[in-house]
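Our example copied in:
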Amino acid sequence: MTDELVLRNARLVLPDAVVEGSVRIRRGLIVGIDEGPAASGEDLGGDFLMPGLVELHTDHLEHHFTPRPRTRWDPIPAVLSHDLQMAGAGATTVLDAIRIGTMAGDDGGSVTAGALALLTAVEYAADAGITRAEHFIHLRCEVSAPDCIEAFDAIGENGLLRLASLMDHTPGQRQYADVEAFRTYMVGKGRIAADEVDEVMERLRRVAEEYSDAHRHAIAERVAARGIALAAHDDATEEHVAEAARLGVRIAEFPTTAVAARSAREHGQLTVMGAPNIVRGGSQSGNVAAAELLRLGLLDILSSDYVPSSPLQAVFHLVGGGAITLPEGSALVSANPAAAIGLDDRGSIRAGLRADLVRVAAHTAPPERHPAGTPIPAVRGVWREGRRVA
């Protein structure tokens, strides 16, 4: 008997090459990488073996918790359902994005209560060992909301918190520079009645003037004291980025313009864009395309955002189109996000790192079934610390 697991006959996606070979795993760690055939082990049939995905920004936990407007699901089953979906998409490390700060269309104080319920459920599931992926928390702080600081202080000391982001969804700036995009989203989601939008937008602008700047600084101070990563969200101008840099921001999430993305790079920030932006060919809000930032050398990380399966799909889309190599695509969804939040024990297939791995078959559908013509990634196996979890 041996406690060593061998995954053989795979195309290994290493940091700088794709090679045919096998990976040896012992006690949850990669202990060896061998090129060529191996005599024994689990045969992966020539599929790709990639590092497990490290997901920094997924909104999907909240969708499982609130599957319909003003309808709450039991939070622990919601976490497990979300976890199953993320692991099935190849993610072995997930930062669950939980929003704090009551906005227009929210139901009173339920946002903070819901955030606490989700955090407690994630913590319980992690402690009980019943999740497939390893879960941490990404606290999305709506700085324009009057109750943002109160909510942060109720949650911010939790040991699972690894990332906080500064958000401001006030209509007329950042993501909603085009107020029609705000109108379309809020009315379409059923959060605001069409005949009330103008009044709500004016009220939000007044509230933001009172709270946004003070809350942005207060959150940054609290995050710095905790030593966790701080992200800016939807920066649009050089001034936005410069302010974020002064606050200690390391990560630029979803910059809305190439100007902001370039400024973020100049300030040493890592740029995150949504993988759905790549797959769809552009931003749903009319902002800068992620593919354009990639072309300019300004894209570091892809996140699933609102489609859990999109990171792998985006990687194979880009590789199939010749924009990047598979090792470069793997870095966008594994090594780079892991490094961004200080998880230096994972994200690549290298000896000594965690055996967080995903087996991927690249399926090419007939053109009449899939007009894009690029390979469709199908996840066929997921290992977290050498244990098969999906």
